[in-house]
Amino acid sequence: MIKCIFHPPAPPRRPVHPPSRNTRRRPPARAGTSAPPRFPGAPQRRSCLPHGVRRLLPLVLACGIMAVGTYRPAVAARWRVTLARLDRAGYFVKLKRAKVMHWSRRGELTLRLPGGHTRTLAATDVLHLNAFVPARGAGSPRRRRGGWKLVLRNGNVLFGRPVRAPAGDVAIDVYGPGTVRIPIKLVAGLGRRPSTVIPVRAADHDTLYLSNGDKLAGAFVALGGSSLQWSSSLGRTRIPLTRIDRFVLGGPVGKIAVSGGGERLRLIGANRLDAQWIQWRAGTIRFPGPAGDILECPAANLRGISIYGGRVRWLADLAPASCRQVSYFNGHWPLGINRNVLGRPLEVNRRRYTHGLGMHVRTTLTYALHGIYTKFVFIPAMDDSAHPFGRARLLVAADKKIIYRSAILAPGRAVKPVVLSVRGVHTLVLQTLGVGRYGVRGRVDWLNAALLR
C-alpha cells in the first residue's frame, strides 16, 4: 500500500531587487493605519534636502518658536497702588495692575483699573506706588552715566556724571531727568561709585579725600565737568576728578522744606529725589528739582513713588522724644531706622520689609503725637537674626495707659498686623520686655509701623 502525503503549494516568491544607494529601507507600516504597506521594489519618496539639513531643520524651527514666544513689544507700566486705608485684616488696601492716566498739579491721581473703569484719588489718600509691570522700550535700567554718587542731606541719592554748574550749585548728569542742579547747602558729599558711605556731619570745614589715601581740609569752591576747585591753606587749587575719591561737605545740616507734603520719586538706577508736586500726563512727568528748576522725565523711568505729608506717617520718619535702654553687660544696641538692631534689613520669615523699627529688649521709646493721629498700626515680630532662642514681649502705652500687651514673640512664628486707636493721644510709649534668659537675643521688629490721621 502506497501512502501519499499532500503538501499545500508554497506561495510564489517575489523578486528581490538589490537596494539602491540613494534609498533607505523603510520600516514596516504600523497596524491600523490607512496607508497601504509599501512593498519592496516600489519607488521610494525622496527628499530634496540633504540628510544633515533635515536633521538641523527641527532645531532651527524650535529656536524660531522660542524667539517668537519670548518677544514682547513695548508696553506701558502697570502699577500697584497702596492706599492710606486699612482693610478688615489691618493691611493697607492695594490696587493691582492699575495704569496711571493723569496726575494733576493739585494732587488728583486718575487711574484706569483692570476692569476698564477709571478712579480718581487725592494724593493724600495714596501711600505709595510701585511698578508692578515695569515699562519696556524706554531704555535699560542698568545704564549708567559716569561712576559718581551724590548724597543729599535729606537722604536722596543720585548716580551719574558731574557736569559744570553755576556758582553755588553742584550739577550731576543723571539718566532720566538729565542734568540735576542741587544747592551746595543741601549736598552732603560726592564720591566715586562704589565708594564708602558719605557721612552727614556738622563741621566748620570740608574734607577732600584723594585717590592715594590723602585728605585735605578746606572749603569747596566749584565743580566742573572734569575738575574740582578747592580752597585750603595752600590756596585755591584745581584738582582733576581722576585724582579724587570723594569729598564731604561740612557746615550746618540743611534739609529740603516741603510744605503740605510731597512725593519721593524712585527712578531707575537707584536714584531718589524729593519733589513738592508732580505732574503726570501722556507718559511724561514734570516735577521741581532741588534748585527750583523744572525737571522732565519719561514715566517709563519711574520705579516707585512714595507720598509723604498725607494721611499716613511712617513711625521711622518721626524722631522720638526720648529713647532709654537698660543694656546687658554694659552694651548698647542702637535704634534701627528701617533696619534691625544689627544694621541689616528687616527680615522676618525670610521676607524683607522696607519700613519699620529695629529694637532690642529693655528699650523704651517715647513719641509726641500732639493728638493729631487716629490709628497706630504695626506688625510685631522677632527678626530672623534672633533665631532660634530670641524671645520678647511688646508693650504700648498711650498717655500712661496700657493699650496693648503682646504674647511671647519668637522667631519663625506667623505675624499679623495690630491696629490700635490713638485718637486724641499726645504721648505714645513703645516698650520691649525681655523673657528670662532669652532676652539676650531679643531683637524685635516693629514692621510697617505707621500713624494714620
Q: Please work out how many helical segments DSSP would assign.
A: 1
Query: Main sheet?
Result: 11 strands, antiparallel
* CATH level-4 homologous superfamily of the domain at 313-452: NPCBM/NEW2 domain
Structural class: mainly beta
Radius of gyration: 35 Å
Terminal CA distance: 126 Å
Shape: globular
* Beta-strand content bin: 35-45%
Mean pLDDT: 79
Annotated CATH topology of the domain at 313-452: Jelly Rolls
Q: Any idea what the CATH architecture of the domain at 313-452 is?
A: Sandwich
Low-confidence stretches: 29-35, 67-75, 139-145, 254-259
Indicate the CATH class of the domain at 313-452. Answer: Mainly Beta
Number of strands: 34
Helix amount, in percent?
A: under 10%
Give a structural overview.
The protein has 453 residues and is mainly β. Among the domains are: 101 residues, SH3 type barrels (Roll); 140 residues, Jelly Rolls (Sandwich). It is 4% helix and 44% strand. The protein contains one helix and 34 strands. It is globular. About 6% of the residues have low confidence.
Task: Please write out the topology.
Layout: H1 51-70, E1 78-86, E2 92-103, E3 108-112, E4 118-122, E5 126-133, E6 148-152, E7 157-163, E8 169-174, E9 178-183, E10 187-192, E11 206-210, E12 215-223, E13 227-232, E14 235-240, E15 244-248, E16 262-267, E17 271-275, E18 279-281, E19 284-288, E20 294-298, E21 302-308, E22 312-314, E23 322-325, E24 336-337, E25 346-348, E26 351-353, E27 356-360, E28 363-368, E29 375-382, E30 392-398, E31 401-405, E32 418-421, E33 427-434, E34 443-452
